[in-house]
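Appendix B, Record 12. Input sequence as logged:
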Amino acid sequence: MIGSGTLRRGIGIAVILTAFIVMLGHLRAGAGETAVLIPEPAFDPRPAGSGLQTMVVAGGCFWGVQGVFQHVKGVQQAVSGYTGGTKVHPSYEDVSGGDTGHAESVKISYDPTKVSYGELLRIFFAVAHNPTELNYQGPDEGTQYRSNIFFTDAAQQKVAEAYIAQLTAAKIYKEPIVTRVDALQAFYPAEDYHQDYLTLHPNYPYIAINDLPKVANLQRLFPSAYSETPVLVGGTAPRS
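Logged structural output:
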């Protein structure tokens, strides 16, 4: 006869193993998303001015989105943060509750002589996230993980809306694109421990399963745009 203590320990181990299997399956849900090679934007005028330009997008957990754009040539900096909501200077705990209106976002500073806004949007739609998932990305659920483009001026708005219309007309995706296009109000950088997370924690299961494949897809689908060395918030100099 099995003793009650042994039985309880066995049940406890079974519960832990079951929880681990469920968690692993939940994580793997993100890995099921495949990158899509999509056409270049038909409308992508270069800005008239000179100097660095800014792009802000949201597409699920900012770790992976930041990690992708840090490997794109012409990007000088990519910062994880929060935007789209009403709370001033929100914390991760504030945003993770899903009731601030903010989305986990990435602010990208780039050289328009090396990469255009439309080219960055192409990477955003093709490998950085899935634009057909409404208020979730892979294993993450909530409005803070929505697909969203935050334009800084009317020119960016026109490019973003025209590209979404182009991809929709071409029926690139099996499901409708749900990406929102909104004016950028304020961007709040995330806490230091969220910056460069993909590079600093490549063996973390979430990163290995959900985000490293995105960087691999960037290299595979956009070899001429891919840079082996990421430009990091915490140290590396901007790429020339």
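Residues 4-31 form the longest helix (28 residues).
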